[in-house]
Amino acid sequence: MNNLLNVSLSPHAKSSDSVNKLMRNVIIAMLPIMLFSFYYFGIGAIIVTLVSITSALMFEWIISKFILKREPNLSDGSALITGMLLAFNVPSNLPFWIVMIGALVAIGVGKMSFGGLGTNIFNPALVGRVFLLISFPVQTTSWPKPLDSFTSYTDAVTGATPLAILKEELKKGEKVSDILEKLPSFMDLFIGKIGGSLGEVAALAILIGMIYMLATKTITWHIPVSVLGSIFVVAGTLWLINDEKFINPFFHLLTGGILLGAVFMATDYVTSPMTGKGQIIYGIGIGVITIIIRIAGAYPEGISFAILIMNGLTPLINMYIKPKRFGEVVKNGK
Amino acid sequence: MLKTFAKGGIHPPENKLSAEKAIEILPVCEMVTIPISQHIGAPAKVIVKKNDTVKVGQIIAESGGFVSANIHSSVSGTVQKIEETFDASGYKRMSVTIKVEGDEWLETIDRSPEVVRQCTLSSEEIVKKITAAGIVGLGGATFPTQIKLMIPKGMTADTLIINGVECEPYLTADDRLMLEKGEEILVGVSILMKALNVSKAIIGIENNKTKAIAHIDNLAKSFQGISVQALKVQYPQGGEKQLIKACIGREVPSGGLPIAVGAVVQNVGTAFAVYEAVQKNKPLFERVVTVTGKSLKKPSNFLARVGTPLTALIEAAGGLPDDTGKIISGGPMMGKALRSAEVPMTKGTSGVLILPNPEAKRKIIQECIRCAKCVSACPMGLEPYLMMPLSERRIFDRLEKEKVMDCIECGSCSYTCPSNRPLLDYIRLGKASVGAIMRSRKK
Q: Could you tell me the pTM of the whole model?
């Protein structure tokens, strides 16, 4: 024998899954959303997306290299995903320097301060987004009108999002049946012809991405189904109780970032629970908190906060919600 | 209807390269080395001396305790030396080396090819014969078979489950045995049923062996109480607890034995050995071994004598390829990587797998991204991602509470991990420590 043999413990076989492959699946699933955003918001969307991605990668590299002093690993794709998600969460007319600040907070505070990939508690892109929302409330809540601003960036014509219209009108004491006339049609909501952040408008594109990730087993059904299901049930119950005060649940599902959040943000591996049962509890928590914020909170939109709150509860869920152990329940009479 | 176990499991590429290769009888080689510890439990005690002449089937080492098994010579010839040599475990163990002269079998062994179906022996007599023949579980665990047939007081068995799953990728020994020795296996099963005094036996076979399922199902019609259950192709379908769950829907309690739910599990290879021992007076000294690997010229199934060096098996399958990076005794999921092929095959050697070099090496370990794939893959409902750091940091009390001792070491977690983390390595370490702590507490 001329060469030495490898002597390692079993198993000697390894699945073809790798971190890079899983991240690549997520990136592929996000591409339709990106293309839709380019189509609706034009040059602004392209600038915001590029700035967000490059600054996320740059900050990841700089912090790894000079602060954590370890070999930067950009190839795993996680910083790229954070950059894309951050862009999806902001309007297309957001000045590029604000986007950069968002990327710095997302990567620096949201991820690297906890030790990098795998150890962060909160979804980095959402940390960046919420930081921007609180720090730059004006810039981050002026929404360019779709298809209207193809060649304009920060000077785009803006309008309110459907959720903001709803909140304002309800405050004025209008009835839902009257407000509905001022809101976009369901078809427009579904294909994304509405005001909003880059990634949240096109429900269709998000659903395509979700199907792709489920088909490639990148994510499981637990989180998206429990988030969307609980929102549907809670909003639906309120609507059945009083349909003049509360809008129908389909409107909730198709507006704002609920679909984007349920499919791409809440399903982040690192910050979501490990067991199916835990993931369902986490999903229901997100759904319920989202509706509470939308109906009773100051912001028209609530899913970012809801996901961050449940991210914080994830370690607790992992501690107390255990998978059912094999042979745990001794069955009587065999 | 395909049945399967309740939770977890993976589906590694099946790679059954030798599934169509009929069992070949491997010519006896010049020298065999027979270890006296080929089973779980106490090593056997050598009863031959140097320069003794032995015949095929003659006992050379006697059972060394309650959990132990007799060892028989697999060849005829002269005992050359009795000393410690390396076996497949990588340790030096006492072995008997015999220089082969001719092939003279004990006269008591019935070598005729006719299948003997009639068995008039009583339950005790059957167990006695099985004990004398040195039969151990041939699925790989090598637990002495007679102990599984002695039902502890206060417990009853109602179902015998025969493991024909062969869920390990690459291996085809049981598949071929079922196709070629189906009737003998079924006689063996009915003998085991008699020994256990049960009226029902289920042969569980994974659905990638459709020919074996059809064949055994057809033959089983003429045997009372024996049925075939096709099972979903899902690893570890052949794990004892998983197989019981799949076949009869009962869950063996944590820390318990199959008998706690009235089941006894035996491998198809064991059933065949029982047939040969009881009906043909033939002790266990040869078995079917799959020699396989993508880089191998001629993946094959051999009927080989215990003590045959693995080098001879590999040579018969076309020789060791140059790019070999790993030689495994057993399958890719639970087999043992060998330091060298210069070790003898034993009763528990179900296969020899050759892996070429890039595949033989482990991949670079990355950070855990908490994707939870290990949790969903674990067939025992454990959390490998959590047990690995607990074991690494030696937090053994937590590890015990997380049921580390329930781990069946199937390797589904390490297989599935996208970050290539050595989950099972650390869980094994943790199990060893927790097991020692639990035993010291009992004292």
A: 0.91
